[in-house]
Design a protein that fits this description.
heterodimer, A: alpha/beta, Rossmann fold, 6-stranded mixed beta sheet, 4-stranded antiparallel beta sheet, 8 helices, B: mainly alpha, 11 helices, 0% strand, globular
């Protein structure tokens, strides 16, 4: 589905992606892990065409994405921080997104799933962080796209919403979709992910199943395995 | 693009500032005409206000709108919409809504005072057209500045400086040069430098049309001498159009290469 070759990106003097190669072919849940500043969000934004790489190529279903936009019809994206136009009401935001990108399906279902009905007439600027994140999740999941990208989807969510989000992700996976997630919550990773991609200093450090990562680091627990890798690199 | 334009336009139309801007022009028009029954003289007074105010408001609203709608822009960038359409849509949305405030705000009082019966109708029309063109020019410049500077404060500072440069500093430098090189033939030089300042160009264009040589100044006199009224008007409108097209092209160029 996505083939990334030799991706380089610098922001000023800081090298964020340094010759990254990656291929997503399989359906299922792929988790992107890595310490802060390792280039997870930059990688995701490059796939979306929001960040323009200095070098390298990204192919989506066999086509180069540089300068293209139609391929984004196949992608639902949940940004890391929910930024919305502050003056709009929640309801108006949903209407606007529907107008700009026709074909949403399960908006009503999602609104009730995350209990957003009381907030529909509130302005987006007055929402709490968690509620804004719920709005963000509804916008992401209301489209039926084959690729779903979630950048830190759990930020600010209460336990109930977290459980519902997990169910939602698993439902989408069962529909045969490819899902990319970045997160720092290891229990979530162990629970749902099929494949792990570990990014370190702008390169792929590890890619594969959770079990093989545990084997490689000789740790029984994922959190410790990850910590192990990080401590090695800090030292 | 039309959808983005629509949202940008209505977003601005709903904001308080558009109304203040509209009401300002409305009251300005009525006061001018109330104090001065001669429509022709009112047009001249209006000229000086429009030449300073439309660029200032265009610049300020342009940067302000860009920085305020960044969240919206990021939301749009992840959707299946062409990048250049997002920025062009936003640009046209703000430029059109500002122009509308100008056209309606001044149009209503002048209509009420019978501009259609007056011989000044053509001059008034040109004045409004120039005001709208200046709005388009300076909003485009402001968008460019905002695209270049990530930092809001820097962007605002630079935008105000740009306005100040075209509205005041440019003329100052120009006058100093004319005084210093007084002994040389400066006609062509004067013509040449005018092209690089849309505000100067607009002033000359309208003054040529109003035919008041007392207000022409050095630049205008040369301009009129050199081109003759009709050709001068045609060429200056063409140059003003370039002042819109070039920055807009640069907005597209810049937006395609920017990271978000």
């Amino acid at each position: 589905m996505i083939v990334i070759k030799d991706l380089h990106k610098k922001f000023g003097k800081v090298t964020v992606l340094d010759g990254l190669n990656l291929t997503f072919e399989d359906k299922g849940i792929h988790t992107i892990l890595g310490p802060n500043g390792s280039g997870k969000t930059t990688l995701i934004k490059s796939i979306l065409g929001m960040v323009i790489p200095n070098q390298g190529s990204i192919e989506f279903n066999g086509k180069q994405i540089l300068g293209e936009w139609e391929y984004r019809n196949q992608i639902s994206y949940l940004p890391q921080i929910a930024y919305f136009p502050q003056n709009l009401k929640v309801k108006e935001l949903f209407q606007m997104i529907n107008d700009l990108r026709p074909g949403s399906k399960n908006e009503a279902k999602l609104i009730s799933l995350f209990q957003l009905e009381p907030y529909l007439d509130k302005k987006l600027g007055n929402l709490s962080g968690g509620t804004a994140q719920k709005v963000n999740i509804v916008i992401t999941f209301m489209f039926d796209s084959p690729l779903i990208i979630l950048d830190e989807p759990t930020v600010g969510l209460d336990p109930v919403a977290l459980i519902r989000l997990k169910q939602l992700i698993i439902e989408e996976k069962e529909k045969g979709k490819t899902i990319l997630i970045t997160t720092h919550i290891m229990s979530l990773v162990e629970e749902i992910s099929d494949n792990i991609i570990f990014i370190l200093e702008g390169k792929i450090y590890f890619e594969g199943k959770i079990d093989s990562l545990k084997e490689q680091t000789k740790q029984s627990n994922l959190e410790k395995a990850i910590a192990n890798i990080l401590e090695e690199t800090y030292a | 693009m039309l959808k983005i334009l629509k949202y940008g336009f209505f977003d601005l139309m709903r904001s308080r500032w558009s109304y203040i801007y509209f009401l300002f022009y409305l009251s300005l028009g009525f006061i001018l005409l109330f104090l001065n029954q001669d429509v022709g003289k009112a047009v001249i007074t209006l000229l000086n206000i429009i030449l300073i105010l439309t660029p200032l408001i265009g610049t300020l609203f342009g940067v302000m709108y860009y920085y305020n709608s960044r969240e919206f822009t990021e939301l749009l960038l992840a959707q299946p919409i062409k990048r250049s359409n997002i920025f062009l849509g936003q640009y046209l949305g703000i430029a059109l809504s500002l122009s509308l405030s100008l056209v309606l705000g001044l149009g209503i009082p002048f209509l009420a005072y019978g501009i259609f019966q007056s011989s000044e109708i053509f001059n008034f029309f040109i004045l409004i057209l120039i005001g709208a063109m200046l709005t388009f020019i300076f909003v485009a410049l402001a968008f460019n500045i905002a695209l270049i500077f990530e930092d809001k404060i820097k962007g605002f500072g630079f935008a105000i400086l740009t306005w100040l440069f075209f509205a005041v500093i440019y003329d100052g430098i120009f006058l100093i040069l004319l005084l210093v090189f007084d002994d040389y033939p400066l006609d062509k030089f004067a013509l040449f430098t005018t092209v690089f300042n849309p505000i100067d160009l607009s002033r000359i264009l309208i003054l040529l049309k109003l035919d008041i040589s007392a207000l022409l100044g050095y630049t205008g006199a040369v301009f009129q001498n050199f081109f003759g009224t009709n050709f001068g008007m045609f060429s200056s409108i063409t140059v003003l159009s370039f002042w819109i097209v070039l920055p807009v092209t640069f907005i597209i160029y810049k937006s395609k290469r920017k990271d978000f």
